[in-house]
Amino acid sequence: MFFCFTFGLEPWKRRQKDKVYNCPRCSAQTVYYEKINDCFTFCFIPIIPCGSTKSLYECYTCGWVNVQAPHQPS
After folding, report:
1. How many CB atoms lie within 10 A of CB 38?
2. What's the pLDDT tens digit per position in 40-63?
3. Using CA of residue 33, residue 66, residue 30, residue 41, what is the dihedral sign?
4. Which of 37, 49, 65, 72 is the most exposed place for a label (fewest CB within 10 A)?
């Protein structure tokens, strides 16, 4: 019997808040605050986080990424 297991390092994203922001590039309301770090995976399941954690804002429509808070008009 032959079993094939996969393992490695992959980026792991986690949304931190449910609040949605407006994108400064495309004006869509699809910008989320996320934390990302590399994680050791076994069979595509994240097991152990490795390295430093990065905080960022990412737009799921146009792909805009910013490590600072997006500007919200008053």
Report:
1. 18
2. 888 888 888 888 888 889 998 999
3. negative
4. 72
* Domain that includes residue 39, residue range: 16-66
pTM beyond 0.90: no
In the prediction, which pLDDT does 70 show?
47
Q: In total, how many domains does the chain have?
A: 1
Picking from 61, 65, 71, 9, the residue whose alpha carbon sits closest to that of residue 34 is 65
Taking the C-alpha atoms of residue 4 and residue 25, their distance in angstroms, rounded to an integer, is 43
Calpha distance 15→47 (Å, rounded): 18
Q: Has residue 55 been placed in a domain?
A: yes
